[in-house]
From TrEMBL:
GO molecular function: hydrolase activity
Keyword Ribosomal protein: no
TM helices/strands, residue ranges: none
Segments for region (Disordered): 231-327
Protein name, per record: LPXTG-site transpeptidase (Sortase) family protein
Start-end of Polar residues biased regions: 265-276
Keywords per UniProt: Hydrolase
Native source organism of the sequence: Papillibacter cinnamivorans DSM 12816
């Protein structure tokens, strides 16, 4: 009777130890994958993370070709889908060709992935460019989707100012994050052109983690191309709105001139109304009342002059229009 009890105790202890080993291994792997630079900071330069290793296709795709066609994203028709990419659970037949567009790097998250044309089976080997959106580094909204937990496991850790680097056609395009939000899977409007952003990048992945009921959207704008501004690289004005802004300042410059004239006129009324205090015998009210320009200023100065000069008015008006008494 004692042996079976001891045997059960030994089995239970082995299971507990095995569970602890699995748990600690998972924690160690999570700690290794965690982007600690989001806490302690780090370089966000292109060389901060190495380029990805060459793609190794599965057995099902063994006969497929991997080709480099940077311009392939211009001609294909948009993907016919009612939902945003990110959670493809249905079986997808193997492809005969995979088009490799470039490389995506997020130094802060230690992400380095190939960009493939399409968001179906292509996302097994990297991130997928949403067909029909703008090409990498070109004008418009370039949309790229990736799976979670890998490689976009920590995409929600990006904040405004972080860098996203795309390498394509021997050029390095640096995008700067400026917004992130969550949408429903059917809100495909996020693939449209972004107002006020001529060179936009939209990253898409599932959220919340391990639930995938929504899509996490991270928006970034192109800020650098091979060390130059987009305007300098593409030969367009870097700030096309600046000349208009200078022209609009011209009418604003004339407004202070008008206000100064109004300010120089308004003090003249108090100066005239103050003259009776220095020369109490002059018939000043008869000279102010005919002036049309002092109609509005007279109301403002009425509180100062109408009740401060009544003592002088009866003295000058009691003679029925006669001459004032000699001083």
């Amino acid at each position: 009777m004692k042996k079976p009890k001891k045997f059960r105790f030994t089995i239970a202890r082995i299971l507990v130890i095995a569970g602890l080993v699995v748990f600690l291994s998972a924690m160690a792997y999570e700690a290794y994958q965690y982007p600690w630079s989001t806490i302690f900071g780090g370089s966000q330069a292109e060389d901060a993370v190495p380029d990805p290793t060459p793609i190794v296709l599965d057995k099902e795709d063994a006969g497929a070709d991997i080709v480099d066609e940077p311009e392939a994203s211009v001609s294909p028709t948009p993907e016919a889908t009612a939902n945003l990419p990110g959670d493809e659970t249905e079986a997808v037949d193997p492809l005969s060709q995979y088009v490799q567009l470039g490389i995506l790097k997020i130094p802060k998250l230690k992400v380095s992935q190939y960009i493939l044309e399409g968001t179906k089976r292509q996302m097994r080997y990297g991130v997928g460019h949403v067909t029909g959106t703008a090409a990498v580094g070109q004008a418009g909204n370039c949309a790229i989707a990736g799976h979670r937990p890998y490689p976009f496991r920590y995409l929600d850790k990006l904040v405004s100012g972080d860098s996203i680097i795309l390498k394509a056609d021997d050029h390095v395009y640096t995008y700067t994050v400026y917004d992130s939000f969550a949408v429903l899977p059917n809100e495909t409007w996020v693939l449209n052109t972004v107002d006020g952003e001529p060179y936009a990048l939209t990253l898409i992945t599932c959220t919340p983690y391990m639930v995938s009921s929504h899509r996490l959207i991270v928006r970034a704008r192109l800020t650098d191309v091979d060390g130059m501004t987009p305007g300098a690289f593409y030969g367009t004005p870097a700030e096309p709105s600046s000349p208009a802004a200078e022209e609009t300042t011209l009418p604003e410059a004339t407004e202070p001139a008008l206000s100064v004239e109004e300010e120089t006129i308004s003090p003249s009324a108090p100066q005239v109304s103050e003259e009776p205090s220095s020369a109490a015998g002059l018939p000043v009210p008869e000279e102010i009342s005919p002036s049309p320009d002092s109609a509005y200023s007279g109301e403002e100065t009425a509180g100062e002059g109408a009740f401060s000069e009544p003592s002088a008015a009866p003295e000058t008006g009691s003679t029925d229009g006669g001459e004032p008494p000699a001083a």
